[in-house]
Amino acid sequence: MSFPPAEASSASAPGLAHGWTQGPAQGDAQVLERTDVRSGGHRAGYHIHVLVVGDNSRQIAGPLTRDLTQSFPNLCFDRIQDLNDLDAFFEDLGDDDHVVLGVATSEVPNVDALIESARASSLMASTQWMLVTDQEIHTDLAVCTESGHLASVVRSPWTVPLLSGQAYSSMRRYLEECGYCGGEILALIQGAPSFAVQGPILEGLDLNEAQVVRELLEGVERVLGPRPRIILPRGTHLLTQGHRVEAVHLVLEGTVSLHRDSRHGEVLAHLATSGPLIGLISLARGESAFFTALTTSEATVVRLTTEQLQIALTEDPSISTVLTALAIRSLTRRLMRAEDLHVENAMLAEDLERQKEELAATLEDLRATRAKLVEGARFAMLGELSAGIAHELNNPVTALLRAAGHLRDDTEDVVSSPEPEACLNALNSAMDLPPLSTARERELQKEFLPILHDRSVIRQLIRAGLSDHTQAQKLADDPKQLLAFQAGARLGSSLRSVLASGERIIALTQSLKGYARPDADERKEVDVRRGIDDVLRLTSHRVHGIEVVCEYEDVEPVLAHPSKLQQVWTNLIVNAAEAIEDEAADLKARAEANPASGIHLPARGHDEARITIRVAMDGDQVEVQICDNGPGIAPEVLDRIMEPHFTTKAGRVRFGLGMGMSIVRSIIADLDGRLLIDSHPGSTTMRILIPAHHVHEEES
């Protein structure tokens, strides 16, 4: 191929002393016709394709196709006018075909739309594109710039050596990415034309200062001619970490940030120190991008490929001096920034270590304070229960004294009885007989009344074990036997009352001791059912008038502090009882304030007030449900019920500190348990789930 001699070139033409394109020529029409996909089709027997897009309306597509076909005679060049012809281009391509390069011209209305449409086909999904343009500014390159499919931008008119060199580099990179090695690539596209600009990549370069940027751009444009300015919107990726760097971007206006991905997420590495030349070092070293470069404002950039930089440096050696000086200055600034960051990191590490120690001390103080708060709340609850406990003790003590007062007379009657055997039988029967229901006792009284005639005597004999007509008739027929049976029954009943009262007192005191006894540091196995029973004994006066139903299944023990668990049960049971009582008090006050309003029913309707306690296994967890049929908890209150110092009892006789539910939650959380609340008018369920003891053993 021949080129115009140097003297034939325009005196003002920049660039090489030879090699400028001839521009439009007579043979262009035949080239356009031969390569037009719509008329000529693909070149038979050729599987390596280069797609040229342009309608020659600006006299670019014709000369461009001519120069490329002359530079690469062994390739199939196909031309379409715009993206609407893409389907016709792909129609005749097979699995063995490769589109190694796409060449767009500024005759295409929207380059981004063209490249994205071509990428939709698997045949051009990874093909690189070259733009040949006669325009000063392009605003249609943001997408292909960000995706990395824009290989280079060439200004029209062009130099054939530069054009062919860039085309060959892009085609070779494509085939390398497809897995072809050097020999296979030479067999497919042969070597680069002898006149093509090829050379090593520049190394160790970077820029930062605006004044020298202008000098660099002026030097490049002295060689390559005016460079098109590309305007990119904010958020455009110039480089992507780990991806191949195809060109550098000279930032004339706007800002670019450099980010680095790490295991902790994306880290901003440089903003003020990014510099105006993006991607040079990675491009020069042939490495993937170390940073992700992102425009942080609208930016005006000039795109320069390896070949363009090479030819500029070859033609104007003074540019090398500028690049070297700025590389040292830029690297120095980045090194100083790195040293500053190192010092800042060291200072931050010291501050973090000090704050860590302070937080550890604060956490320990909080734990101690919470432990004291839990202990104080336990004894506060114990003090609140003391009046009820005294009442509970008073009943068995009174019964004990009453029974003891009758023991002397009852004993004398038994000792002096002429029928000691009858007395002994009645005494044993009265002591051991299981309790009868009220209905059964009335039924027996009705049966024996025609025989014995005295209701008090009949009641006494029934409680001593009298249960059939024959025995009743014998006693009625033998007054001595009847008197002996009565004496033994009275003594047995008194002894039974003494024993029952003593057992009740012992149970209360043991429950009280278990509640008040300080816990050891280590947890131990706890049967939640026994703890709930102890709490029910201590709080029986608080649930007076409320039916308490216990539904227990066999459950495994949990690993806990017994007294802390009892705090949980006490708070939840007392809260349930107080909710029912407060609802009744509110209804009574409303009725008294407005007698004409009629009867107001509680949320449970006509049902009796009830608290139901269920204990069962739920998988590997012990589940305790404390349910009441009170008024329920309002949704706005439910959201805050666990907050410290939040109380719904202010203004009532029972003034709450608002710490009960907060303490309940913390105790359950310490056991790795969960507290779930389901509430609506007429039903509130507190559901507590605590891991069984064997779960803790397995974890240990």
UniProtKB/TrEMBL annotation:
Keywords: Coiled coil, Kinase, Phosphoprotein, Transferase, Two-component regulatory system. Residues 201-313 form the Cyclic nucleotide-binding domain. Residues 1-26 are annotated as: Disordered. Its main location: membrane. SMART domains: HATPase_c. GO terms for molecular function: phosphorelay sensor kinase activity. It is found in: Cell membrane. GO terms for cellular component: plasma membrane. Pfam families: cNMP_binding, HATPase_c. Residues 388-694 form the Histidine kinase domain. It catalyses: ATP + protein L-histidine = ADP + protein N-phospho-L-histidine. Its EC number is 2.7.13.3. Residues 338-372 form a coiled coil. PROSITE patterns: CNMP_BINDING_3, HIS_KIN. Residues 1-14 have a biased composition (Low complexity). This is histidine kinase. It comes from Schaalia odontolytica. The lineage of its organism: Bacteria, Bacillati, Actinomycetota, Actinomycetes, Actinomycetales.
